[in-house]
Amino acid sequence: MNARAARAAAATGTSRLLTRPMLLLLVASVGGMGSFYLLLSVLPLYAATAGGGGVGAGLTTGAMMLATVLAEPAVPWFLARFGHRAVVGAGLLLLGLPSAVLSLWSSFPLTLGVCLARGVGLGIVVVAGTALAAELAPPGRRSENLGLYGVSLGVPSVLGLPAGVWLSDRLGFEQVFLLTAALTLLALPAVAGLPARRATRATQAERLSGDPGGRKGDPGGRNGELGGRGEDPGVRKGTPGGPLGAAVNRSLVRPTLILGAATFASGVLVTFLPLALLGGPSHLAVVALLVQASVAPLARWGAGWWGDRHGSSSLLLPAVLAVALGTAGLVRLESPVVVIVSMVLFGAGFGAVQNVTLATMFERVPRSGFGRVSVVWNLAFDAGMGLGAVGFGLLIDRTGYPWGFAVTAVLLLTVLGPAWHDRRYVRAETA
Asked: Which of 313, 350, 371, 385 pairs with 105 at a CA distance of 20 to 30 A?
């Protein structure tokens, strides 16, 4: 049986995805990411209308992503020291409670401080959640399980991104800040049901198969595409351990660059699209964000379903192209139809890029490397968003919004080469 047939056979098995620990992880993730997305486009508006302009708007997202990037490498250590429950609970509190301070006092430095605290909470929640979702996956269905987890992160964006903008316009910024704090408090009870230290499902499957590397329960090797080598490529031949070890694993470089470029564009979009559409048709920004946020999680789950059966790498090139075309379409900001179609393309490509890069990176390391891959993937995601927001804020003061979106689309086209080469790399490995 070849690797593709083995993947398809395993993916059609009867192992359940929605176990109790996985369901509780999804609940906690929805609460945490709901608070994140609710303010993601609101805080830039808040800063810009308070006199910060485009630079101030970009700095709010940039500061949050900087704190996230700095916090993420420490998360595996905190998980090992304190366990999932305490760490994820602390992340939820940091994501929500600091925003309540802005309902009492208003200043740009305080806004940046809140963004920094939220960034730390975001780093904790996404790294811990991604690694746990991979560990809880049944044999042969890791990509699909990651797609399911991606939907749990995407559903809050469907509601949170447009709702935050709409509610701030109707009720005022202060009410949205308080709602954000309340949302994370509601998610806290789910944390009590998470695994205390490590997920048990993966280790039990490995024990039953007699294969600590997960090979026998993972047809085709590492969930399908590459060989099931027992050692960790991130630490072979003198390569450093920890997050750095995963980062310098050459097989992970191209997916990391591709994800970073896609999230660069996402940081631009969620920060500046509402500002770019000010003065245009009523509620166009809300509808555009809703469309993008609705399509992305569906594409992420669909990419996971496809990846378990046919290999994730086949979707990488079209996903990057869709993100680039969707960004390029925003040059026509005066056309509501073009804006909405662009958001459909962007959402489909961005959702697929997230799942494809994440599944591909997990396929290239054994289970012992899952924590490091989670850190590297989330570092690329958050660094891209932060750089996109700050860089675009500096750019549009000189070019304006249409040319700024055009430059971003050109940047995305430059990673079509790495996407093509990565697909060839996988074919060579599986030949």
From this structure: 385
